[in-house]
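Pilot study result, target chain (239 residues):
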Amino acid sequence: MRVSIFVTCLVDQFHPEVGHAMLAVLDRLGIRYDFPKRQTCCGQPAFNSGCPKEAARVARQFVAAFADSEIVVAPSGSCVEMVKKRVPSLFADGSAERQEAERVAARVREFSDFLVNVVNVTDVGARFPHRVTYHDSCHLLRGLGIRREPRALLAEVREANVVELEASDTCCGFGGTFAVKYPAISGEMGREKLRHVMQTGVEYLVACDTGCLMHLRGMIAREQLPVRALHLAEVLAAR
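Predicted structure:
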């Protein structure tokens, strides 16, 4: 198996440590990977803003970049959901572009899904002696149906005390452009999420989407809360 890494915009521009952590886990498991340098955005920001033509233009570049990939792995349920469920619909039924987009989309997997359901591993040799809880991001849970996999991976992390989060499946308020269009509602949703987090007494909040983490990290910093937000890959890379 050779994996092609789709790094996503938020990881590339704001949180490269998440990408580095994902590669550290793949290295530990002996999985070969490459990084197609032609890759750009998957088209989700334009799509969510109601601009399908612009989204299709970006999606063409994504499909071309990964056309020869055996399997594509990304640390983002949101971007993977976009590629698998939305990108093919940007092209006309029966067209060659639609068929190629569907072919590439079928090969794209979110990181936790890839580890558990493709590599068939839950113990990646991680050690993280801390109390943690997990937030279900919307696109990962509702769009891709992935709930069990991140929890199965966390359960095997040595010395980690995993606490279930109340209302773990409610939105954190980020929602991509939603946070920009409706900042007051987005902010209150984030504060409600963090109220549940603080009730657990954990040291770390874990999630699989950098958008959620960026949103919650900002609120944690502003409120000076005694908790940190990490991507699942960062926990799995810890030794």
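One observation from the pilot: The CA atoms of residues 76 and 200 lie 25 Å apart. A full batch analysis is planned for the follow-on phase.
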